[in-house]
Amino acid sequence: MAHQAGGQRPAPRPVPETCETQAYLQDYAALLESLGCPSLVVDHRWDVVMANGAFETLFRGVRPHATAMPGDNFLRFVLFHPDAGEVLGEHEQGWCLPMLAHLRTALETYGHDQELQAIRRDIAQDPLMEAAYRQGLPHWIRAVGESATRLDGAVRLLVHPDPRRGRAECRLVEETPEILRGLGYRRLSMVVRENRRPAAPVRRPRRLRGTAAHLTVVPATES
Predict the structure, then answer these.
(1) What pTM, to 2 d.p., does this model score?
(2) pLDDT reported for residue 51
């Protein structure tokens, strides 16, 4: 299992106390590490259970953050880390809005989960992000369809630290074996495509230290 990207290894998540399960997770971590594409295993809160070295490499340049490191909780990273848009291309449309949709679904299923409720409270404290959650998200889903919120098969943009890749598309692939699914986990991989043309320079201003990764554009609501 790789170290947390940009920080220390996260504390192990609680799992059933059986030798068989522990051995399976150890072997699965070794399998994950053998993959060349960034891969992670998350629970229903988007807490990262394990991630491989390619995932760590992708996010190695992000600055430390108290609550939103990519190897801790991926949902929090996408929404709140000021460096998220420097790694996740088309950050708002491609990542924030879909992840807000997944948060909404998770809250419908696990409404009393304290961590999910804490994320929802943090959104409510930011007027622009709250507007995106309450008005922008429903408008966006009506405009593009529910299929745009899916993970498996979606094509997203990444800004890879390897200059040979740079700004590149990735295909999100969800492959969750039965044992992981039974533990409430899912595995996601970001299959980075080879660039067919030279990578365009990224002209995204770097946010000031300590500022939140706020959405800057909220789709207009219908009158």
Answers:
(1) 0.82
(2) 98
